[in-house]
Amino acid sequence: MGIGITGIRFDRGDGIVIMRGMSPEAPKVGWAALLKPEWLPLLAVLLGGVLLHSMNVMMLATVLPSIVEEVGGAALMSWPTTAFLASSIVAATCTGHLTSQFGARSAFAVGALVFGAGALICALAPSMGFVVAGRFVQGFGGGVLSAMAYVLVGNAFPEPLWPRVGSLLSGVWSLSVLVGPLVGGTFATWGNWRGSFYAVTLAAAVLAILALRSLPRARGERGAGRDGKGRRIPVGRVALICAAIAVMSAASIAFTPVAKAGLFAIAVAALVAMLALDRRSKSPLFPSDAFSLRSVTGVALWFCLLVSVAYSPLSIFVPIFLQSLHGFDPLGAGYLVAGASLGWTMAAVAVAGLPTRWSDRMMVVGPLAMAAGLLGIALFMTAQPVAVLPPLIVLTGLGIGVCWVFGVQGIMSGARSGERDLASGSVANVQQTGFALGAAASGIVANMAGLSSGLTTGGIASAAFWVPVSFVSVALVAAVIGWRLVVLSRRRA
Prior knowledge:
two-stranded antiparallel ribbon
């Protein structure tokens, strides 16, 4: 599920332009204004870039069981996702620098080619290790495509059209929930999962050619840090985030509980060190009170991180549980799991206009609904009838959908003076970090439950219970944090 923020642009600090609500003076225009012939190719390229990046999350979830069946690597099932997300985080911090140095058109085209190269590595992979490597390359290219699309909205379209274009970019994330399983499931059902990656490679190459023909050469602004100098890519802090994700992923294949616990502790230490460095940096990634339990923004960041962690295992392991335990074909399993993302989208739209008293309740109700959905999946994944599973999967998505927007609102509304833009820019980093940490943690649980020895019936059945049930506690902690956020927000009001 992606984040789309539309309206007037501002530089979030690393050169990436994000859209915010338009000024009252800006004239309102209709959708017909976007249909000018000179804008249609540009719009198609931007939407294509975001779709290419976003659809691959669900596409991988759909074909992953087929990949494991052919090349092995059941113990590494969470690694392709964590590799993709980790490199996307790196790309997000580099995009502004790339725009300044090479221009938006060249950066977007190179991002598409890198994405296609990663897909080609996956298509040719003889082992799971090559799939992980390909996904890491894909993640960087996809991160550039997604972030660059928002940069180009501000550079290529007149201001009155920014909300319309931003809405289309946001809508593409919902469309990807349908396209990803369709592409992956179709090829996997035909017994040719590699074909889905070849198709992505071809699509990325076409996108790069169209980008070179349609996009402007615009270069991004060189934002200044607190010391007035040009901002630099925060290599050390981004490296610590990626190291934490990598170490936690490595814990999933450690042989002893002591080794797993040690690697987990190292991952936590890396994240703590990153926050300590960020608070002293003149060009921070996060607000100065990030993850403080005494401030609205700090608690809201915790909230968004925890619900992201709790949500992430669905797309990795539930498809293989459905295929192995209930005989679903890849396409059916992919669309069933996509129900969680659709639930997220529908719920987010439904609650957007709720009054404060109801939005406060959603901060607790949402995580509790996620906990109920995950618990139900754990209890009924191996049982019959299978018809009980779709509502539970959708319930998990509805849970995060009804509360996510209010968590994001807390991050931005509670920001200290001069840090509103910084707080807004931290949302995507926290979301992707939460997804990556959740994927890595679910890999640890799955391997401890029995998947480390391969896709045996007993191992899958055991993992089908322990993976979702282990994240119930994360959702419950998120409910407590949500209540804390409500209390702090009311005190501040």
